[in-house]
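Minutes, project check-in
Item: structure for the 171-residue chain
Input as provided by the requester:
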Amino acid sequence: MSKPAVYDKLKAMAKKENKTNAMRKLDTLKIPYKMHTYECDEFIDAGQIADMLSLDHNLVYKTLVTRGHSKAYYVFVLPIDAELDMKKAAKSVGEKNVEMIHVKEINDITGYIRGGCTAIGMKKQFVTRISETAKSLEQMIVSGGRLGMQLELAPSDLAKASGAEFADIIQ
């Protein structure tokens, strides 16, 4: 193999390694997205991330993971400035109630870490609900699957990639 061919192959491998499960899934589904990156070594609040990247807070959504009365896990995607309404969330997934999982459980359950959790490409496919507020947006921004990475995509594409439905889940 010539030097340029080896270089190109290594470059392609490095690019592939930098992709998260979420990005690989979007690529597989041929769903377009835009990356927003920032320097980060530890958890940063989503509002701070939006400010760092000069993003409209109305476009940035957070991903929360809950456990239902049945012990099943559920994923909820909602605006960063909103609060999850636990009763509405439970009703949207047919549960008696739901509660937030503990931070220490995030990685074991989802395969992601706190601040890098996204509804796309989790270890297992969980029932997912996206706040119906996203339906009015052309684009929304969610975690890209690791600290320092946000992905911008159409709400309908997020729903497709995560198997989600839209629901009234916020207070």
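Outcome recorded: The chain has six helices and eight strands.
No further action items on this chain.
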